[in-house]
Amino acid sequence: MATIAIHRSDAYARQCEAIVTRVAEDGVELDRTVFYPLGGGQAGDTGTLRLADGARLRVIDARKSRRDDATPDDTLHVLDPAGDWLSKLAVGTPVTAEIDWERRYWHMRFHTATHLLCAVVRELVDGCSVTADYARLDFAMTALLDKATVQQGLDELVARGLPVGCEWIRDDELRANPQLVKSMSVSPPLGFGRVRLVRIDDIDLQPCGGTHVRNTAEIGAVRVAKIEKKSARTRRVVLEFA
Fold first, then answer.
1. What is the spatial distance between Cα 150 and Cα 193, in angstroms, rounded to a whole number?
2. Considering Cα of 169, then 175, then 180, then 182, what sign does the dihedral take?
3. Cα end-to-end span (Å), the chain
4. Do residue 63 and residue 159 come from a single domain?
């Protein structure tokens, strides 16, 4: 049974009731989850699984399931090995899954900021990382980037308070519109019938499974920490919060 990934439709959901569906050596899978698994450059969520008796088991990472029949939403909740969780969890155990909200919200703000960056620097992306400390995009380009110009572009888009939303298209629709894909290093998960697009008003539209804020104003004061040449064909832009 595929996991219901609540974060796909509601990135602001902080917890949910769930049932353990699989137990592995390093963690468990649930029938539904608010945990975002590492992928698309974004770090996986951390948090806790709370049992009926009040015990809390620490989730130190979330990753996509490696089962051969796994879907993109099937998530392995990696548990702290010091928590003696194997004696407390089994298939069918009810839990309350709760993410570290503060950490997730930093991810949401940074990830949305990288989409704005794609609208400012209109080049293909050849590398991405979204963490709670910084975000970076590597652009496939040889031209120089002016730090002040990039900063001004980001500031203007954040200040405009643009709505951020999601829509879905079929696999064949995406194949017919390859220009929607901005990344050279991360391919959209085709083969499951449909792909989620993230739209920021009329300035950016691209396939993305990550978590985002609802409005660009929520990003807040973000600064271009540095722009560097990573190779003859790549320019890296690193973002931090001011």
1. 37
2. positive
3. 43
4. no
Examine the fold and report which residue of 57, 82, 99 is the final residue of a domain before the chain moves on.
Answer: 99
Q: Which of 99, 115, 141 is the last residue of a domain?
A: 99
Give me 178's structure tokens: 């390859």
Distances (CA, A) of 164 to 14, 177, 182, 225: 19, 21, 17, 24
- Indicate whether 90 and 111 sit together in one domain: no
Token pair recorded at residue 71: 């879907």
Task: Tell me the C-alpha distance between 186 and 190, whole Å.
Answer: 12
d(CA 85, CA 208): 33
Instruction: Label residues 159-190 b or e (16+ Cβ within 10 Å = b).
Output: eeebebeeeebeeeebeeeeeebbbeebebbe
Helices (H), the chain: 6-9, 101-120, 147-159, 171-176
Structure token digits, residue 211: 């978590």
Do 84 and 184 lie in one domain? The reply is no
pTM: 0.94
Q: Is the pLDDT of residue 69 over 90?
A: no
pLDDT of 178: 85
Residue range of the domain that includes 163: 103-241
**Residue of 94, 101, 74 whose CA lies nearest to 14:** 101
Confidence band for 190, pLDDT divided at 50, 70 and 90: low
**36 Cβ partners below 8 Å, 6+ apart?**
7, 42, 44, 45, 62, 99, 104, 107, 210, 211
